[in-house]
Amino acid sequence: NTDQGLIVLDSALDNVNANLDIIISTFDNLDGTLNDISSSMESSAVLVGDDLRQTLIETQVALSSAATSAELIDRTLSIIAAIPFLGAKYQPEVPLHTSLDSVASSMNDIPESLETMGISLSDTSEGLILLNDNLSELSNDMSKFETDLEDAQDILGEYRRIIEDTENQVRTFNKNLPRNLILVNLFITGILFSLGIAQFITLFQGIAFIEGEKRVVNLADISRE
Asked: What phi and psi, each to the nearest 5 degrees, are found at residue 83?
């Protein structure tokens, strides 16, 4: 029946509300997680793209300076080693300044890579912020849907109360129907009885009127005789 259908619909809305609660809770948790990740990635972007890059550049400069100093030392040691009576030996396979230059040169591409990585992390952080904003908006929409569903459930409850009241009234009417029919029959019988009496009165008045006319006519005949 209608009430049973409303009960089923109300139960379905309860399930939808429960699912919305889970979704909203998940979005809220994800919102916090994305905020944390976004903040962490932004910090990482600054660390990698700025701090580490600058530190590496400074390290390269320091290595280049050290290589320059090492080259002077290498030349000095080579000159000393060339003096026979000193007996100094200095014949390294790779001079120190060459090694330092090699290390500094191997770092040439790293600052640019760190800068690119920092930009990527920053872009990713901005993307996560945008995603987080979209999730927050979606969560708000879900909350509005949940409120609308709760309002719909209130309306369903009102419908159920109306239907229940109507069914009670119908049951009461059906319960009192025999007595009501008797009262209606008595009422109709009373009306018919009243109409019948009125007809009899009219009939008796008509008969009396006719009898009166006969008496008048007879008296007139007697007077003429």
From this structure: -80, 115
Say how far apart CA 48 and CA 96 lie, in whole Å: 30
Question: Quick check: pTM over 0.70?
Answer: no
Residues 139-176: b if buried by 16+ CB within 10 A, e if exposed:
beebeeebeeeeeebeeeeeebeeeeeeeeeeeeeeee
Task: Please provide the distance, in angstroms rounded to a whole number, between the alpha carbons at the two ends of the chain.
Answer: 91
> What span, in angstroms and rounded, lies between the C-alpha atoms of 148 and 32?
26
The domains of the chain, with CATH numbers, are 2-179 (1.10.287)
| pLDDT tens string 2-37 | 556 666 666 777 777 777 777 777 777 777 777 777
Dist CA 47 CA 138 (whole Å): 32
Nearest of 155, 153, 151 to residue 13 by alpha carbon:
153
